[in-house]
Design a protein that fits this description.
The chain is of the alpha/beta class. The protein has a single domain, classed as Rossmann fold (3-Layer(aba) Sandwich). Helices cover about 35% and strands about 20% of the residues. The chain is built from 11 helices and 9 strands. It has a 9-stranded mixed sheet, sandwiched between helices. Helix 7 packs across helix 8. It is globular, with a radius of gyration of 23 Å.
């Protein structure tokens, strides 16, 4: 026979399950008195309004945009833990795969040492002669970089590819050497060593990086810089046009693309989707199981418009869905308008553009590519 304590426990559990199945919130705690704020987020929401943003262009007394960029870029590198790698990584386990028609994929693992290898894939048209422009292609929070050349590895990949995720194929069709880079925590670089990894693919790496004074985002940008070192090193055997070294990505790939452009001046243009909005209005006001975009103390110094302004005067095309529930276009447009002040100070206000797309949080190639090509044509 069950004890009274056990029966009470089971009754509470049953009541909770019934309410959950009915979609009724279960809160066993008393409602707070009127005007009492107990949720941790209440304090944070309040404090956003007083965030000092000490290095923001909006608070800068100097009109020297170049000097401001130098100081802000150094602070962003410090906060994110980004340290530009000096060595040129060595390509290992190189393979070549035919894709379709005259397109091929040359794959390798770039050895950086210290427990870090970066899967990199070059997708290009073999009939084109150099020097060829370069597009670094990043995927968002999904199954991996294989989507960039249209390979199906998981059931959900079929729909993702049908909706336009093969950005490397799109870039190669436009004459680029597409450089598809697997981001840390996704695809081949998902966590495999922990005995019991968390459900979210990023949170373990994000927390572990913090123990070392780094961030996952900073580590991802370091990977991009390491890939650029390799491209400059020439071991790939291609003739590249480095004044046309561009980067693109959507969602978490767009975030890495944006921060890479802010911190690595070798990137000459960026196509960034579904990843821009004020931090206080986006990742600061929603649940975050991944922690992949968090930089400690960032709001003491900079906001998203400042990070975007670090790319000035280089061309940047931003896009986002009007109904994007994570990074809505309204926020993208607001950030772009503010960052344009730095572009204006450098004499290139038209080099930063934002375009809306119909729909929600996804990659919108039908909107992104035409707008980016128009931007680049106008710049050149």
């Amino acid at each position: 026979m069950l004890s009274p304590t056990r029966m009470h426990t089971l009754a509470l559990a049953l009541k909770r399950r019934i309410r959950r199945n009915l979609g009724v919130p279960h809160d066993p705690y008393p409602s707070p008195p009127e005007g009492v704020h107990l949720s941790p987020s209440a304090r944070h929401f309040h404090d956003y309004g007083a965030a000092p943003l000490r290095l923001s262009w909006q608070n800068c007394e100097s009109e020297n945009a170049t000097e401001w960029q130098r100081n802000a870029r150094a602070k962003l590198a410090e906060l994110s833990g980004y340290c530009k790698p000096e060595q040129t990584p060595e390509a290992r386990h190189e393979t070549t795969h035919k894709i379709a028609n005259d397109l091929i994929r040359k794959s390798s693992y770039l050895r950086m040492g210290g427990g870090r290898d970066i899967p990199v894939h070059l997708i290009f048209d073999t009939t084109l002669s150099g020097p060829l422009p370069v597009m670094i292609c990043l995927q968002g929070t999904n199954s991996g970089i294989h989507l960039s050349w249209g390979e199906v590895r998981l059931p959900a990949d079929v729909e993702r590819i049908a909706r336009g995720s093969p950005n490397a194929l799109q870039a190669a069709a436009r004459g680029y050497v597409a450089v598809a880079v697997e981001q840390s925590c996704f695809g081949e670089r998902r966590e495999r060593s922990l005995a019991k990894p968390s459900r979210d693919p990023c949170i373990d790496a994000a927390n572990h990086a913090l123990l070392l004074g780094r961030t996952l985002l900073g580590e991802r940008v370091e990977d991009v810089s390491a890939v650029i070192n390799w491209l400059y090193g020439g071991g790939h055997g291609l003739t590249l046009d480095f004044p046309r070294l561009h980067i693109m990505g959507n969602s978490s790939g767009g975030t890495t693309a944006l921060y890479s452009g802010a911190l690595d001046l070798r990137i000459q243009a960026a196509l960034v989707g579904g990843s821009t909005g004020y931090l206080r209005d986006t990742i600061g006001r929603r649940s975050d199981a991944s922690g992949q975009n968090v930089i400690p103390s960032i709001l003491n110094w900079l906001e998203m418009d400042d990070i975007l302004a670090l790319l000035a005067p280089r061309p940047v095309l931003l896009f986002s869905g009007k109904e994007d529930h994570i990074w809505p276009y309204a926020g993208t447009e607001a950030v772009a308008e503010s960052a344009r002040a730095v572009y204006r100070a450098l004499g290139t206000p038209d080099n930063l553009r934002a375009v809306p797309a119909e729909g929600g949080h996804r990659y919108h190639p039908d909107v992104a590519w035409p707008a980016f090509e128009t931007l680049m044509a106008d710049v050149n």
